[in-house]
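TetR family transcriptional regulator: structure tokens wanted.
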Amino acid sequence: MTKALKKQEIIDHAYELFYDHGFHATGVDKVMADTGISKRTLYKYFASKEDLIAELIGHYGETFLKIAPVEIARLSPDPAGQIMALFDFRKAMFDEGSFRGCFAISANLEYSGRDTPVQAASLKFFETFLNYIKSLCADGGYKDPDKLAGQVIVLFNGAVVASQASRSPAPFDAAKSVLAMLLAAAK
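Answer:
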């Protein structure tokens, strides 16, 4: 197996474990269990557990930000509609019974207040995601796209966390009704 494939195997396996069980609750031994991966091999690719998690946040961000724009554009052809569709896209994951929430938010919360690669990777994801929303707001012709994007991301992240905590997609409906008023007022 090539180095790239072995590294990807570790990423794929660890991603699922951390997403399902949390970051502090999932130790390196659990990551290696049933995979044939030794500690030596794991640390060959990642200097620490935090470096592995940071890499996983990057993986999450790349995956989410590759799929989301395609799905959102499929749901609505115009930027204003795409802002609304972002909420529909994420709600659909909860509708399917996946209440995992946002990988980057979860990691950031577990590592809150520490200067780690986890926080740096989380902040990079949040910045990239915010820039994506800013571009939708700018393309939609809103007066202050930066301010609006900040408001949209607060509503979006709030809906994600509330849905995860309540194990219900209903918070997305509440967030979308507020979003509709916000978008109308921002023109």
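The two ends are 55 Å apart (CA to CA). The domain at 1-46 is CATH 1.10.10 (Arc Repressor Mutant, subunit A).

Cheers.
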